[in-house]
């Protein structure tokens, strides 16, 4: 039987720790890059910052947050400036691409205010994701 963890794609990152909050049906998933993506052995100078983003619900857990570290490498040897970050998230976003599209699609079928309540989002966020979903689909 396939490990359930491998059913969810975390874009090269692996699950280091999961914290369950039964009362709020919340999951905090801590991710870690499996292998570093540096280009050479001198690529060490790094800036790090921690991020968290919303991701798809898993089972009864409606609020799923992914926690990970963004690393920026500035190398004096190979002259590269390279950012290691979760590929599932566009820069500056607070949710994964798949979460935005999931909520956006639901918003075309369910009242946005109801969705907002169910997923602990604000109404404006739901409207933004709906527009995003509609825009994406009109190009297909
Ligand atoms: Zn380098």
Fold and architecture overview:
By secondary structure, the protein is α+β, with helices and mostly antiparallel strands. It folds into 2 domains: about 1-85, no CATH class; about 95-140. The protein has helices spanning about 95-105, 110-120, 125-140; strands at about 15-20, 25-35, 45-55, 65-75, 80-85. Strands 1, 2, 3, 4 and 5 form a 5-stranded mixed β-sheet that branches. Helix 1 packs across helix 3 (about 125-140) and helix 2 crosses helix 3. The structure holds zinc ion (ZN). Zinc ion (ZN) binds next to loops.
SSE blueprint:
Blueprint: E1 13-21, E2 26-33, E3 46-55, E4 63-74, E5 81-84, H1 97-107, H2 112-118, H3 123-138
Parallel strand pairs: 2-4
Antiparallel strand pairs: 1-2, 3-4, 4-5
Bound molecules: zinc ion (ZN).
- Low-confidence segments, given as residue ranges, are none
The chain-level mean pLDDT equals 89
Q: Can you summarize the main beta sheet?
A: 5 strands, mixed
Number of helices: 3
Helical fraction: 10-25%
Query: What is the number of domains?
Result: 2
Sheet/helix structural class: alpha+beta
- Extended strand count: 5
Portion of residues in beta strands equals 25-35%
The small molecules bound here are: zinc ion
State the distance separating the first and last CA atoms. 36 Å
Shape: globular
What can be said about this structure in brief?
The chain has 140 residues and is α+β, with helices and mostly antiparallel strands.
